[in-house]
Design goal:
- The complex is a heterodimer of chains A (283) and B (275).
- By secondary structure, chain A is of the alpha/beta class.
- Chain A has a single domain, classed as 2-enoyl-CoA Hydratase, Chain A, domain 1 (Alpha-Beta Complex).
- Helices cover 40% and strands 12% of the residues of chain A.
- Chain A contains eleven helices and seven strands.
- Chain A starts with a helix and ends with a helix.
- Chain B contains ten helices and eight strands.
- Chain B has 275 residues and is an alpha/beta fold.
- In chain B, helix 2 packs parallel to helix 4 and helix 6 crosses helix 7.
- The relative contact order of chain B is 0.13.
- The radius of gyration of chain B is 18 Å and the shape is globular.
- In chain B, strand 1 and strand 2 form a beta hairpin.
- Classes of the chains: A alpha/beta (283), B alpha/beta (275).
- Chains A and B meet through helix 3, helix 4, helix 5, helix 6 and helix 10 of A and helix 2, helix 3, helix 4, helix 5 and helix 6 of B.
């Protein structure tokens, strides 16, 4: 199992920061960061709360080409404020996606790749974060009319809150073992529903529910891959080449309703049972 | 332990407003108890009204107070998608009215295990595609309009209207949880909210962010009078007309407020650097 040579040679994706991750995907000579840190467009709200802002507000947008094709990579920095989205970071993402839509209307086939490392709304900018996420979602749906939108949840911050809904709008989702994808963060569920319902400190339990492997085995994502730069890039390219799926997951309401309407909900449902329920024949 | 904003209390306003506003409408069976749908006319516009209401018997125990859960998310998506398909070739498409009184998304283990994020994404997707397909979508906030629940039901509308009432609140998270996540006390949080408009829970602070198309004065948000119903209906009709006149199906009109300048500035700067 342990291929020492492979492990020594492989280049981790997760170890990269948001900017390096974005750069690792695009063709080297094509890259241009938009609203980079030197533009100094920072959160106007954090300073008012004595919180140190960051010059890129934790969101990196790099435009370029991917194997010669126009692309924009949007990468959230999980290390800054938990990857949370405030007004500026949220507007950077929504704005980039809206421009990608405009490109497509003008027959430039720009694709968008979202590197999601986020707890969702930045609570210090609450309603402006929420508004921005609604606009990000609107733009993903609009862009999907033209191009597949690809989401990657690689690192340990995971993808939660309103941005997990945004992830659910993507044409394709890629995760690693480290990544988590879920609507409500573990702490919040524990706070709202109690320890019995959800123990935020029980890491194996949390990953068994929303970790990359489980999400893949339940068919809620499209690819589960190793933390490896080359493989992640290759998978993204493969999905772009496949084009938009016939029926993205978010358009499969009948399928999921049918499964849920026959489910016994009196007891908690185990991860293995979710796999069997959603994947049936495949599990 | 709960503050008013996330007190365990059933959402009831949505049902009251739904019943009163759709008195003469045709009921449409959604197959889900907590998802109420009706269709009728508001002025000259045929409108289908969607509302999530509390169902104490909901098979998902964490979704019994009017929360948007798995069934509600997928159910909304199914119902809205159906409407898009039915109107695909119609010259004039039916309007959509989202009545919003959602205390939160459902917080539970069953929900996370079964992928509630995907259910809510399906609802967002259907509303957004309806808007893009030319259905005029209007939301009316009559109660709590919280977080993921509001994203799934209401936030994709062309126009958002709200009752001017202290029970109408928009926020990303209940106060207790928001305090825990930001390592603050509830008192600190409330104090900050007084001078940071996006952090506040009240609808007037929210209105200052430029996201609303109208705040409607009512005599009673809990038990609307005939006069309330008339003025609300008039505002809804006005919003539908406005959408038609403007003929745009995007959300760019939300970017005009003083308290939201950075959102517009970021887009302008980014556009200048784009090509």
């Amino acid at each position: 199992m342990a291929d020492i040579d492979y492990l020594l040679k492989k280049q981790s994706f997760i170890e990269l920061d948001a900017r390096q991750r974005a750069k690792s995907l695009l063709d080297a000579t094509s890259q241009k960061e938009l609203l980079d840190p030197f533009a100094r467009v920072m959160s106007p709200w954090l300073i008012k709360q004595n919180i140190v802002p960051q010059a890129d507000d934790g969101v990196v947008v790099i435009k370029g080409t991917l194997e010669g094709r126009p692309a924009v990579v949007i990468s959230i920095e999980g290390v800054f404020q938990g990857g949370s989205l405030g007004e500026v970071g949220g507007a950077k993402i929504a704005g980039a996606l809206e421009l990608a839509v405009e490109d497509n209307r003008n027959h430039i086939p720009t694709v968008a790749i979202l590197l999601l490392e986020t707890g969702g709304v930045r609570l210090q900018e609450a309603n402006l974060g929420l508004a921005a996420i609604a606009e990000i979602q609107a733009a993903i749906v609009a862009l999907r009319q033209y191009q597949p939108v690809i989401g990657v949840v690689a690192g340990s911050v995971g993808c939660f809150g309103g941005m997990s809904i945004a992830a659910g709008l993507c044409s394709y989702l890629i995760m690693t073992q480290e990544g988590r994808l879920g609507l409500n963060g573990p702490q919040v569920i524990e706070q709202e529903a109690g320890l019995q319902e959800y123990n935020a400190k029980d890491r194996p339990f949390i990953w068994s529910i929303c970790g990359g492997e489980q999400r893949f085995k339940t068919g809620l994502i499209d690819a589960y891959i190793d933390d490896n730069r080359e493989q992640i890039k290759a998978q993204i390219i493969e999905f772009i080449q496949q084009g938009s799926p016939q029926r993205p997951r978010c358009m499969q309401a009948e399928h999921y309703l049918e499964k849920l309407q026959h489910l016994d909900t009196t007891q908690q449902i185990s991860p293995a049972e979710v796999q069997a329920l959603y994947q049936g024949e495949k599990a | 332990m709960n503050m008013d904003v996330n007190a365990i209390k059933q959402a009831t306003r949505g049902k009251v407003w739904f019943d009163r506003l759709t008195q003469n409408f045709e009921r449409i069976e959604s197959g889900i108890e907590s998802l109420q749908i009706a269709e009728g006319k508001i002025n000259n516009q045929i409108v289908r009204v969607f509302c999530i209401t509390a169902d104490t018997q909901n098979r998902f125990p964490r979704a019994r107070n009017g929360e948007v859960g798995l069934l509600e998310g997928w159910g909304l998506a199914h119902a809205v998608n159906q409407m898009i398909e039915q109107d695909q070739d119609a010259s004039k498409k039916r309007g959509i009215l989202c009545l919003v009184d959602v205390p939160s998304q459902a917080y539970g283990r069953r929900e996370e295990s079964l992928g509630i994020h995907q259910a809510l994404a399906a609802a967002v997707d259907s509303y957004a595609r309806a808007r893009l397909a030319g259905h005029a979508v209007v939301s009316l906030l009559v109660g709590k309009s919280m977080s993921g629940a509001f994203l799934a039901h209401g936030y994709q509308a062309n126009r958002i209207l709200a009752l001017k009432d202290s029970g109408v609140m928009v926020h990303a998270m209940g106060k207790e949880s928001a305090a825990r996540v930001t390592l603050r006390t509830v008192e600190e949080l409330e104090h900050l909210a007084q001078r940071i408009p996006p952090m506040a829970y009240d609808i007037e602070s929210y209105a200052s962010l430029g996201l609303l198309s109208g705040l409607i004065e009512v005599e009673s948000a809990e038990d609307p009078t005939q006069h309330d119903l008339e003025s609300v209906t008039q505002s809804i009709a006005g919003a539908f007309e406005d959408i038609q006149q403007q003929g745009r199906c995007d959300l760019s009109h939300r970017l005009q407020a003083q308290n939201r300048q950075a959102s517009l500035r970021v887009r302008e700067l980014m556009k200048a650097q784009w090509s």
